[in-house]
Structures are given as C-alpha cells and as structure tokens.
Amino acid sequence: MESFELDKTLWQKALGTPLILSQSGGLTSLALALPNGLRLPDDGFSVASSLEVFLVLSGEIQLGLEDGERTIGPGILTVLQAGEKHYARNAGSELAKLVQFTLPA
Predict the structure, then answer these.
(1) In the chain, which stretches have pLDDT less than 50?
(2) Domain 8-103: CATH superfamily, name plus number
(3) In this structure, what DSSP letter does residue 31 have?
(4) Residue 49 phi/psi, 5° resolution?
(5) What is the three-class DSSP state of 105?
(6) Can you give the pLDDT at residue 55?
(7) What is the pLDDT of residue 60?
(8) 67 FRET partner, CA 20 to 30 A, in 47, 59, 61, 89?
(9) pLDDT, position 71
(10) Where are the domains of the chain?
C-alpha cells in the first residue's frame, strides 16, 4: 500500500508539470497543479494513450475536446478514453489542483 499527503511541498513539485506519485500494475497516479492561464499542451491537443481519469480538487479547469470545451471544478471526476484528443487550461483565478490516474486501454 502507498499513501501520499497532498501538501504544499507536493503541489510545488507538481506545479506546471505532472508529478508521478505511483506506478504499479499498469496504473499510474499523478498530481498536477496548474497556475492561472496555464494550458497543457501549450498548443493543439494531447492524445490519451490510455484510459485517463481526472479528479479536480480545487480551482477550475477548462477541458478542451474535439467537440468543444467543458469546465470542470472541485469534485468533478472526468474519464477520457484512449485516443481521445484533449487539452487542459486553468480557467479560474486560483491554482488548480488535480489528481490523474492512467490505466491501460
């Protein structure tokens, strides 16, 4: 078993780039802190290579998909299928914090 304290130090390490928390049996867990206005990737779309599950803990994320944008906030769980094109942008005024889990397709 592994557990992680989602404290200030962890979020500083995850600022602007995903921080891998754990990898086991094909499951990867990550933490990500997005400052206001930051978009990942900078331009275009990222393509999910596996099943991706996001849980926003604080802030607002504008999730861009091929068919438009959706705003997701605290407590919203989002599932992207492998091959789905997407981007994430902090659309709010505060630091957005989320955890992500990836699983083989």
Answers:
(1) none
(2) Jelly Rolls (2.60.120.10)
(3) E
(4) -90, -10
(5) coil
(6) 96
(7) 96
(8) 59
(9) 95
(10) 8-103
Tokens describing residue 45? 């779309």
Q: What one-letter code names the amino acid at 85? A: K
- pLDDT reported for residue 41: 92
The CA-atom distances, in angstroms, between 66 and each of 71, 84, 100, 103 are: 14, 8, 20, 22
For tokens 């979020």, the residue is: 11
Q: Which amino acid makes up residue 53?
A: V
CA-wise closest residue to 99 among 47, 59, 42 = 59
What is the rounded CA–CA span in Å between residue 49 and residue 105?
Answer: 8
- Of 80, 83, 84, 62, the C-alpha closest to 72 is 62
Residue 94's pLDDT is: 94
Which pLDDT score, from 0 to 100, does residue 10 have?
A: 94
Dihedral sign, Cα of residue 28, residue 101, residue 88, residue 75: negative
Chain length of the chain: 105
Contacts of 28 (CB under 8 A, 6+ apart): 20, 22, 101, 102
